[in-house]
Target: prephenate dehydratase
Amino acid sequence: MTQKIAFQGELGAYGHEACAAARPDFDPLPCRTFEDAIEAVRKGDATLGMIAVENSTYGRVADVHSLLPESGLHIVDETFVRVHVNLLGKKTAKLDDITDAYGHPVILPQCAGFLRENRIHGHTSTDNARAAREVSEGNDVTVAALASELAAEIYDLKVLARHIEDHDRNTTRFLIMSREPDYRKRGKHGMMTSFVFRVRNIPAALYKAMGGFATNGVNMTKLESYMVDGHFTATQFYAEIEGHPDDRSVQLALEELNYFTDKLHVMGVYPAAARRHEK
Model:
């Protein structure tokens, strides 16, 4: 029986592309929201979940970092997808026909320049692949979708303009989530460790907590803060470092961090993707 991997969106979404690239032997399981994708893994309807966390043009995917710590799941891998945005229309449509285009709120800023130059009004859709499906089901040649070429194939649409993203390195990073952690893996491009923490209410606690990474030579690649439960005074940090908790330098850094925190939770230990090191 083929295992399933859950993702947010409909078939043809960029999450679907990520699943096909990273886990081609898994059947994709479309889910309406990130919460639904996480729940599918939690309930056992899927073995893995493919969760988008950040885009090189748009930035952090809203709410995902606050969802993951409470999910009960573990990060077991990461993958990077080069996001090519395409303008998809009816088979009979031409680029000059298009007056309106629909895409996810994350996609619209990524091709704002193209839309402006072609006097196309951008509109939000809950999902890029859904926008493609709705264009396919409709009869309006003036309406297009902003989506992948995979979506064009699935919904039998015409690619009116290819690779219209404003930045030529537009990339989305996805985390692969599982019900069980796997600390045995070792990656040929190194290892990553992700964790969340809250610092104790003492002067310069964050500064002191970070000191252990510097003194032990551990490279921190990400540190982000977000409010917890809507309280301005309750701040949680999401961090990623290079290395494995079994590494002595990482052990010492985490021990020092733990001294200055009242919560520390390792969310995943996983191989660094090759594309992480691309210039």
Observations:
- The chain has three domains: 4-82+170-178, 86-161, 191-271.
- The helical segments are 14-22, 34-43, 64-67, 112-117, 128-137, 149-154, 205-215, 248-259.
